[in-house]
Amino acid sequence: MRTRGMTGEHLVLMDSRGRISFPAAFRSAIGETLYISPDLDRLGCLVVRSEDGFYEEYDELEAESKKEGADKKKAHWALRQYTGRTETVSPDKNGRITIPAKLIEYAHMEEDKDSKDRKVLVIGVGPYAEIWDEETYRAAEAAYNAGFDDEE
């Protein structure tokens, strides 16, 4: 069953323990177990999927690896990284999730020296959500939008 309906941008604070409030609508769409992975595009964000969403992505990666002419080594490394770097978490009674340290490091969401809390964006992307360091996201968004300015 495909997860649907995650939309919007939510600015939340991540505390020193790596906990964030994960939006209730997203929790409802994903379920009690969240699969958190580094993004496959290497943009520096985290992708949050339901169990079904995690296995759908796995199946797509596996199918790509079996296509005629596929680079088998590269495809197997993609599968290894996807499964090996994915962590499962469950929200606590307050709707917070704890992001594992290795994923915090990947997404450049380490603790800010000037503040105990770090601003983090949780963005709905239809069947999954993304978690971004706010500064990283705004910089990527500006770079993307600048590409349109160049076309005019």
Commentary on this structure:
The chain has 152 residues and is an alpha+beta fold. The chain has one domain (9-151): Transcriptional regulator MraZ domain (Chemotaxis protein chec, 3-Layer(aba) Sandwich). The chain has 5 helices and 8 strands; from the N terminus they run E-E-H-E-E-H-H-E-E-H-E-E-H. The protein has helices at 24-30, 51-66, 72-84, 101-106, 134-151, and strands at 9-14, 19-21, 34-38, 46-49, 87-89, 96-98, 118-125, 128-133. Strands 1-7-8-4-3-5 form a 6-stranded antiparallel sheet. Strands 2-6 form a two-stranded antiparallel ribbon. Strand 3 and strand 4 form a beta hairpin. Helix 2 packs antiparallel against helix 3. The model has no long low-confidence stretch (mean pLDDT 90).
| CATH fold group | Chemotaxis protein chec
Find the count of extended strands (DSSP E, 2+ residues). 8
Could you spell the SSE succession in H and E letters?
Answer: EEHEEHHEEHEEH
- The CATH class, by name, is Alpha Beta
CATH superfamily: Transcriptional regulator MraZ domain
Radius of gyration: 16 Å
Structural class: alpha+beta
